[in-house]
Specification:
Elements: E1 2-5, H1 6-17, H2 23-38, H3 42-46, E2 50-53, H4 55-69, H5 74-78, E3 80-83, E4 86-89, H6 99-112, E5 118-122, H7 128-136, E6 141-146, H8 149-161, E7 167-170, H9 177-182, E8 188-193, H10 208-211, H11 216-219, H12 228-240, E9 241-250, H13 256-265, E10 268-275, E11 281-288
Parallel strand pairs: 5-6, 5-8, 6-7, 8-9
Antiparallel strand pairs: 1-2, 3-4, 9-11, 10-11
Length: 290
């Protein structure tokens, strides 16, 4: 056993991570590490109490620190993240939920609060959108689709953990044969999606913890086809949405106007582009009038 003051422990780890991460991010990561491995919350750390750390705990912390120094996301190391007030398990091969996506969920919840609706989430990943909607729009029917069996395993586990009723479907939205038969035409109130939207040209701007560890399948689209998934999803939505049903997208900030034009060409109306908390075009809502 090693005896150490919590503030000293915190400062030691923070200093090591500040060579790689911004100071505020390094601080957040260390708080997360200490809570996960030692059950110490922020108050425990800041009051500078003296604690004992076992050899097993020390080894786990050191291993986590080495993984962080290689830019591995903290969410993969601890195995979970928080999203829209819920806890979601994540692991390599499954995209880590982002705060911007919480804003997309909030938009849907605001529009349909106290209503019972039929929802399809396309490209569900960890299940964060579908499960959050199922929890916040009680009695609504929520279905969620992904091409990745690994992602669906995680999503199903998250639905069980969060006691959310979601039907999961394995399907490629670019070739949705099963989906076309499974979901009746004009039966959905909402189609929502955060599909892959990063172009290869943007790789040089991305952080190593995303580029080196998160799944390409969930991130990237062909450079020459930036609206590949959006067009496929929107075309499906024209067939499956009820009259006045709505389509919600998280989008690449570079292609807001192009996304809007594509939706107009397919017959969508009342198209709204909304900025995220960072002031970037990040979400689109459109209504379909059959």
């Amino acid at each position: 056993m090693t005896t150490i003051a919590t503030k000293q422990l915190f400062d030691e780890y923070r200093q090591q991570l500040q060579t790689i991460y911004a100071p505020e991010e390094a601080q957040t990561i260390v708080f997360w590490l200490l809570e996960h491995f030692l059950a110490l919350n922020r108050t425990n750390v800041l009051i500078n109490q003296t604690i004992e750390i076992s050899q097993t705990q020390q080894q786990a912390l050191n291993n986590a620190l080495e993984r962080l120094k290689k830019h591995e996301p903290i969410q993969y190391i601890v195995g979970y993240t928080e999203f829209y007030g819920l806890t979601f398990h994540v692991r390599p091969g499954v995209l880590i939920p982002r705060p911007e996506t919480e804003e997309l969920v909030e938009w849907v919840v605001q529009d349909y609060r106290d209503q019972v609706v039929n929802i399809l989430d396309i490209g569900t990943g960890s299940g964060c959108i579908a499960i959050s909607l199922a929890k916040n729009l009680a009695q609504s029917k929520v279905q969620a689709l992904d091409v990745s069996s690994e992602a669906l395993q995680v999503a199903q586990s998250n639905a069980v953990e969060n006691k959310a009723k979601v039907q999961f479907i394995q399907e490629d939205i670019l070739n949705p044969q099963t989906l076309l038969q499974l979901i009746p035409d004009h039966s959905l109130d909402v189609v929502v999606s955060n599909p892959p939207y990063v172009t290869p040209a943007e790789k040089s701007q991305m952080q190593a913890n995303v580029l080196d560890f998160e799944p390409d399948l969930a991130l990237f689209i062909p450079q020459e086809q930036p609206l590949l998934f959006y067009k496929a999803i929107a075309q499906l939505a024209t067939q499956k949405l009820k009259t006045y049903g709505r389509l919600y997208f998280e989008i690449n900030e570079q292609f807001g106007n192009e996304t809007k034009q594509m939706l107009e060409d397919l017959g969508f109306q009342d198209i709204i582009i909304r900025k995220d908390g960072f002031g970037k075009d990040r979400m689109v809502k459109a209504s379909y009038l059959d």
